[in-house]
From TrEMBL:
PROSITE patterns tied to this protein: G_TRME
UniProt signal peptide: none
Origin superkingdom: Bacteria
Protein name in the entry: tRNA modification GTPase MnmE
UniProtKB keywords: Cytoplasm, GTP-binding, Hydrolase, Magnesium, Metal-binding, Nucleotide-binding, Potassium, tRNA processing
Length: 436
């Protein structure tokens, strides 16, 4: 039996295929010692990267036991996903088969992988940077075509290349900065300092602009939240159900029925949108209903768009910030000017409303063809870089300016995982699911 082989991290394994019922389950293993495990299971190693049909055997009892007949693929390192010796076993997807093979892998010294561990090893072995690793996680989570395109661009290194350009510019400026410190004024042409400041200013402006351009991409990655608000009984729950195409919320003629927020996820304009049906916003003596109202206000604050529903028998609510006015029950009363009139009951106006919501979703997630970033983590690192460049520009002493530029460099390096790696890895890869 092998255990953790001489200083190398142990061989890890996990199902790489989804957990839903399927014909084939892909079990993936990686690490020094994968080869010996595959040999123990199925005899000699298959030719690299070629699928071979093999019997998988457990051999630690009196008699060898056949576990499954499976396609076996062998990926010798370093040209594998993780950079290590790896293999894939394409098993028949029954739970008993999967369990028997997993037990045998453990008996052979492998252990189940932690979330994101395959990708983390790929990162450690220089097969991808952090941005690309996160892109792979996003590609697996992508629900819509727009999200798929965005994630794939990230896997292909769109942002990594952009950050590399920024880092290169900063490095050149830093070299000029060092020259300013090392050489007395007389020996350097006077324009060196001016060019340095100009260069910093330009980079500062470019990165600051990217913060605005990336906001839409970040929203596209996480999906949007649209809150449906309005007085009790105007038809909020009915509207949510109609948009979702199913009964997610309770519809009742009694006011104050929806006490807690009900969420449902739909796709609008190729963007995943969580619709939140909030409890009616009104003063109430009922404790539970009051709690619902408090939560509604919380959702309204978090929402990317607030859909205010009212009926023609009431005065339209005043719009604050980004929102839509929707007048329901136009089968009973006409909609006032400036509101989108609908009747959930008769479906009147519903197509128009769907189009308006989809346009809203698209506008909120629109941005540059190449998103400069897609996550809060990226935004924070870019903001920090911009902050330090800004401070460098405010410094009169060259020594202090250099220090700020180095801090900017460091924040930028965190984006791709070039610096400060250890602190980051748990956070980044911990969000992955197992088998990635
Ligand atoms: P909420 O309290 O705002 O969530 O309102 P509900 O969705 O529970 O609806 C309250 C009542 O209004 C229910 O009896 C619905 O059937 C009714 N209702 C919803 N939409 C319409 C509509 O377009 N026309 C009419 N006449 N009644 C509606
Ligand atoms: Zn309701």
């Amino acid at each position: 039996f092998m255990r953790e082989s001489d200083g190398h991290p142990p061989v890890i394994f996990a199902l790489a295929s989804g957990l839903s019922r399927a014909a084939i389950a892909v079990m993936r293993l990686s690490g020094v010692g994968s080869g010996r495990i595959v040999e123990s299971l199925c005899g000699r190693l298959p030719a690299p990267r070629r699928a071979s049909l093999r019997g998988l055997w457990r051999r630690d009892g009196a008699e060898p036991v056949l576990l499954d007949r499976a396609l076996v693929l062998w990926f010798p390192g370093p040209d594998s996903y993780t950079g290590e010796d790896s293999a894939e076993l394409h098993l028949h997807a029954g739970p008993a088969v999967i369990n028997a093979v997993a037990d045998t892998l453990v008996a052979l010294g492998a252990r189940p992988a932690e979330p994101g561990e395959f990708s983390r090893r790929a990162f450690t072995h220089g097969r991808m940077d952090l941005m690309q690793a996160e892109g792979i996680a996003d590609l697996i989570d992508a629900e819509t075509e727009a999200q798929r395109r965005q994630a794939l661009a990230q896997v292909d290194g769109a942002q990594s290349r952009l950050y590399q350009q920024w880092a290169d510019r900063l490095r050149v400026l830093l070299a000029h900065q060092e020259a300013l410190i090392d050489f007395p004024d007389e020996e350097l042409p006077p324009e060196v300092e001016q060019r340095l400041v100009d260069g910093l200013q330009e980079l500062h402006a470019t990165m600051q602009a990217s913060l605005l351009e990336g906001a839409g991409a970040e929203r596209l990655r996480r999906g949007l939240v649209f809150a449906i608000v309005g007085a009790p009984n105007v038809g909020k729950s009915s509207l949510l159900n109609a948009l979702a195409g199913r009964d997610a919320a309770i519809v009742s003629p009694r006011a104050g029925t929806t006490r807690d927020a009900i969420e449902t996820r739909i796709v609008l304009g190729d963007v995943p949108v969580t619709l939140v049906d909030t409890a009616g916003l009104r003063d109430t003596d009922d404790e539970i209903e009051a709690e619902g109202v408090r939560r509604s206000l919380f959702h309204v604050k978090q929402a990317d768009c607030v859909v205010h529903v009212f009926t023609g028998s009431q005065a339209p609510p005043r719009l604050e910030g980004d929102g839509l006015l929707v007048c329901n029950k136009i089968d009973l009363h006409d909609a006032p000017e400036g509101a989108i009139g609908i009747s959930v009951l008769t479906h009147a106006g519903m197509d128009v409303l769907r189009d308006v919501l989809a346009a809203h979703a698209r506008a909120l997630t629109a941005g540059q063809a190449q998103a400069p970033f897609t996550r809060a983590r990226h935004r924070a690192a870019i903001e920090e870089t911009v902050h330090h460049i800004g401070r460098a520009l405010g410094m009169d002493w060259p020594e202090m300016r250099g220090e700020e530029m180095r801090l900017a460099m460091r924040a930028l390096g965190r984006l791709t995982g070039a610096v400060d790696v250890e602190a980051l890895l748990d956070t980044v890869f911990g969000q992955f699911c197992i088998g990635k």
